[in-house]
C-alpha cells in the first residue's frame, strides 16, 4: 500500500496531539501526588521555635543590660509568649509569638526579666513540647551569670 498521499496533503501523523499530551501529563501528576509522601514539617517547627525563643531571650537580656530607663521582659503562656518594653509612660508589647496547635510551653515562672548586669530575676528552664510526638526542647537560664543554654 502506498502512503504517499499523506505527505502530499501535509498530514504527517508521527506526533502526539495536544490533548493526548495534556491528559498524559495530568495522569502522571495525579499518580505522583498519590505516591510521594507528605513532608511532616512539625519536626522542623520545634527546632525553629526553640531557636526563636532562645534568641528572643538573649535579645531581652542584651536590651536590659544596655538600655537606660527602659526595662524589657518576656511573659510566657501555654501557647504563646510576649516581649514587653517598659518606660515611664507605660508598658508596650513589641513582639508576640504564638505556637502551632500541637505545641506548648512549660515553665517555672511566667515573667522573665534581667537586671543591668545580665542576671535573670529567677533562673528557670523553659520547655517547648511537641504534644503529638512527645518530643521536647529545653532552654535553661543559669542563675547569677544569666547564661542561656539551648538543650537538644
Q: What does the model show?
A:
This protein is of the alpha+beta class and 152 residues long. It folds into two domains: 4-35; 42-151, minor pseudopilin epsh domain (minor pseudopilin epsh fold). The protein has three helices and eight strands. It has helices at residues 4-9, 18-35, 42-66, and strands spanning 71-76, 80-87, 90-98, 103-106, 111-113, 124-130, 135-141, 148-151. It has a four-stranded antiparallel beta sheet with strand order 3-2-1-5, with helices on one face. Strands 4-6-7-8 form a four-stranded antiparallel beta sheet, covered by helices on one side. A hairpin with a 2-residue loop joins β2 (80-87) and β3. The N and C termini lie far apart (77 Å). The model has no long low-confidence stretch (mean pLDDT 86).
End-to-end separation: 77 Å
Proper CATH architecture of the largest domain: 3-Layer(bab) Sandwich
Total domains: 2
- Hey, roughly how much beta strand do the residues contain? 25-35%
H/I helix tally: 3
The SSE order reads HHHEEEEEEEE
CATH topology of the largest domain: minor pseudopilin epsh fold
**pLDDT averaged residue by residue:** 86
Class of secondary structure makeup: alpha+beta
DSSP strand count: 8
Amino acid at each position: 500500500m502506498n502512503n504517499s498521499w499523506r505527505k502530499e496533503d501535509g498530514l504527517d501523523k508521527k506526533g502526539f496531539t495536544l490533548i493526548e499530551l495534556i491528559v498524559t501529563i495530568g495522569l502522571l501528576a495525579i499518580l505522583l501526588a498519590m505516591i510521594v509522601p507528605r513532608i511532616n514539617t512539625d519536626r522542623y517547627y520545634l527546632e525553629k521555635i526553640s531557636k526563636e525563643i532562645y534568641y528572643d531571650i538573649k535579645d531581652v537580656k542584651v536590651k536590659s543590660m544596655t538600655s537606660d530607663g527602659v526595662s524589657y521582659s518576656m511573659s510566657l503562656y501555654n501557647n504563646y509568649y510576649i516581649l514587653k518594653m517598659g518606660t515611664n509612660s507605660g508598658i508596650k508589647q513589641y513582639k508576640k509569638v504564638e505556637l502551632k496547635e500541637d505545641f506548648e510551653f512549660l515553665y517555672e515562672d511566667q515573667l522573665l526579666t534581667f537586671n543591668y548586669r545580665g542576671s535573670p530575676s529567677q533562673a528557670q528552664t523553659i520547655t517547648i513540647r511537641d504534644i503529638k510526638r512527645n518530643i521536647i526542647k529545653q532552654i535553661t537560664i543559669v542563675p547569677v551569670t544569666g547564661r542561656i543554654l539551648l538543650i537538644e
